[in-house]
Design a protein that fits this description.
Radius of gyration: 27 Å
Structural class: alpha/beta
Order of helices and strands: HEHEHEHEHEEHE
CATH topology of the largest domain: Glutaredoxin
Distance between the termini: 94 Å
CATH class of the largest domain: Alpha Beta
Length: 192
Amino acid sequence: MVWEGDVMRIPNIVAGMLLVAAGTAIAAAVAGGTPQTKAPSDPPMIDARAFQKILAEHNGKPLLVNFWATWCEPCRDEYPMLNELAKQYAPQGLQVVGVSMDDDGDLILMRRFLARYKPVFPNYRKTAGNEAAFRESVLPGWTGTMPVSIFYAKDGRQAGHFLGEKPRGQYEETIKTLIGSSFDAGAEFQRK
């Protein structure tokens, strides 16, 4: 004997099961049929020797190397402007490279930072340890003040540097001097 209430529940249960099955099939088709976008990879790790190799790879072109970190507020403020300058002066031959000084504990912040600003130039991350030796090999006398921007002439020698955040006009003046034919091979600048 079938009760009237039980008869009404059977179609509802069957309909519910069909909806779950259809939803699962659709989800499987979407997941399998649409390629997933690959997460961007972390910047390559570098030490002092790898940094020298990067400089050698950019020999023959004016180069700006910026050392930054997500925990450094002036670095975060300056970075978007550096990205704009990299776009603006690339046609004149300027190369830009970023080096993150973030620790492993700041990886998520660094990834978000790079995803947000989408730099047009390559970025690297300093390997942990030997901070003082790394800084000394990059810029003798550098005590760790950040950000640091180092300018290299076309012949690969260090032409000058900025310690701390600087305004756009100061960067543009320096970049124009660096890429211009008026750059005196003996002239150096240093702005603190």
